[in-house]
Amino acid sequence: MTKKKFGVTHVGDEVTAYTLKNSSGAYVTLLDYGCTIQAICVPDRDGKLVDVCLGYHTIEEYEQNDSYLGAVIGRFGNRIEKGRFELNGKTYEVAVNNGPNHLHGGMKGFDKYIWDVLTTDDSIQFSRLSPDMEEGYPGNLAVSVTYRFTEENELVLDYQAKSDADTVLNLTNHCYFNLSGEGSGTVLDHDLQLLSSHYMEGDADCLATGKVLDVAGTPFDFREAKKIGRDIGMDDVQLKYGGGYDHNFIIDSKAYLKKTAVLSSNATGIRMTVWTTQPGVQVYSGNVLTHRQGKTGVYDPHDALCLETQHFPNSVGKKEFPSVILKKGEEYSQLTVYHFER
């Protein structure tokens, strides 16, 4: 593990970059600003290191640009309808910052804070205390995210949290992957397999309605690997709403650590397998990435794919779905693994 100064925020806070490297030379670089994954450099079929994670070279770019590149999302990943939820008979209001709905923790979510850091030789733990009613959420929440990068080129994300009052919690990471290399152009030529037979319907604002749909016979059937772009232009109202894929898929497996997705690039031979303890994964095809300069090239819509492992969006109060309520004193624990091979 090595570290170096990454930059200074507009309010004068210093941001540090931490790099975890394994014996093969593959590495990941992480920022204490937003627990952000700034780079993932893994070998292609010829052994050349390729950075497969969209990001920026300066803290100013992270502060100025949208889309949450590589950041941890909290307290609540994805959307909450009309920025309102009920817990223990009380209604809580959170920011409406995505059309008529709440998105990714509000105006200043976890992605915009500098976290405390504890390091070891092979891991980095980021932690912070989210105070009671921060962005409208109840309870003082002690939260940590630990990253490890293994000899097998596995990036492991270990989420832990505890609150002193009942609250709602749905943590995820918003890494944008392009296995041909960040800045290389479209991700629509990547092959994607999702181990999911069902996905959640979205409305015109990409809010999950709560209705569960079967993937069979639809553009959302990735049970057998296919090109991301093969069906993305089909005449399907769900695709039209978001300009592509922006939907929660329900993982079929009921195992503790579930195989969730396999993404691969023919250009580099790099394959990424996703494993998680979460029940769902938001598949987002970078539909509204705005034209911007990235680390080595310009980023445009559909230049990356997000696979955000999480509980189901907009599921507060929906008893038929896995609960997003974290009870006072209970331990929140979730694990996600991104395994890179060639």
UniProtKB/TrEMBL annotation:
<feature type="binding site">
    <location>
        <position position="246"/>
    </location>
    <ligand>
        <name>beta-D-galactose</name>
    </ligand>
</feature>
<keyword id="KW-0413">Isomerase</keyword>
<feature type="binding site">
    <location>
        <begin position="174"/>
        <end position="176"/>
    </location>
    <ligand>
        <name>beta-D-galactose</name>
    </ligand>
</feature>
<comment type="similarity">
    <text>Belongs to the aldose epimerase family.</text>
</comment>
<dbReference type="InterPro" id="IPR008183">
    <property type="entry name" value="Aldose_1/G6P_1-epimerase"/>
</dbReference>
<protein>
    <recommendedName>
        <fullName>Aldose 1-epimerase</fullName>
        <ecNumber>5.1.3.3</ecNumber>
    </recommendedName>
</protein>
<keyword id="KW-0119">Carbohydrate metabolism</keyword>
<dbReference type="InterPro" id="IPR011013">
    <property type="entry name" value="Gal_mutarotase_sf_dom"/>
</dbReference>
<comment type="pathway">
    <text>Carbohydrate metabolism; hexose metabolism.</text>
</comment>
<dbReference type="InterPro" id="IPR018052">
    <property type="entry name" value="Ald1_epimerase_CS"/>
</dbReference>
<dbReference type="InterPro" id="IPR014718">
    <property type="entry name" value="GH-type_carb-bd"/>
</dbReference>
<dbReference type="Pfam" id="PF01263">
    <property type="entry name" value="Aldose_epim"/>
</dbReference>
<dbReference type="InterPro" id="IPR015443">
    <property type="entry name" value="Aldose_1-epimerase"/>
</dbReference>
<dbReference type="GO" id="GO:0030246">
    <property type="term" value="F:carbohydrate binding"/>
</dbReference>
<dbReference type="GO" id="GO:0006006">
    <property type="term" value="P:glucose metabolic process"/>
</dbReference>
<dbReference type="GO" id="GO:0033499">
    <property type="term" value="P:galactose catabolic process via UDP-galactose, Leloir pathway"/>
</dbReference>
<feature type="active site" description="Proton donor">
    <location>
        <position position="174"/>
    </location>
</feature>
<dbReference type="InterPro" id="IPR047215">
    <property type="entry name" value="Galactose_mutarotase-like"/>
</dbReference>
<dbReference type="GO" id="GO:0004034">
    <property type="term" value="F:aldose 1-epimerase activity"/>
</dbReference>
<feature type="active site" description="Proton acceptor">
    <location>
        <position position="308"/>
    </location>
</feature>
<feature type="binding site">
    <location>
        <begin position="78"/>
        <end position="79"/>
    </location>
    <ligand>
        <name>beta-D-galactose</name>
    </ligand>
</feature>
